[in-house]
Amino acid sequence: MNPEDTASSGCGPLSDLRVGARGRLCDHPGAGPVKPRLVDLGLVPGTPLEVLRRAPLGGPIEVELRGYRLVLRRAEAACLCVNRRDAQA
């Protein structure tokens, strides 16, 4: 997804969301070999989520989705596209 599409659609990487921010998962472009595992964990397009905590210095991000909490590496979160406009979780 190019930057112009991202800005106009309200989508951006999960790693850019602040603590307390909510969004709805759009897509996982280029998640690579971890993509099947992320899908197994419930990270599919349309899933609402909320950022609960962020570790300092580029550490992991804790999110809540589908009634449970999940901790993702910052690099994995950067591969997940989240729509912030459609944040009704």
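The above is record 1. Record 2 follows with the same two-line structure.
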Amino acid sequence: MTTNYRDRARIYHEAIRRILLKEWDPIGVSEINEAQDEYDSYVGAIYKMLIARKPKNELFDYLWWLETEHMGVTGNRQATEHFTKRLAKLPDEIGDVEI
């Protein structure tokens, strides 16, 4: 399958958006229809980290900052570490999209 950069970005963005809401969801809004876009502003930064193959600790630090500083929730370090590993697998799950 041949796609362009825009298609690749769309595929990644949709996947990241879905798993942020359904698997991460630190403030518990996944079941609220009006809040389905709650984490959308974080998708771009995560996408850039994933396609640049940034180290997991950088991704973790960003997610941890989002939870504990930006959102102000207590945070669950073990859950965030697990979720970081989950996100880091995304490029392999999506596969190498030919550009």
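DSSP finds five helices and no strands in the chain.
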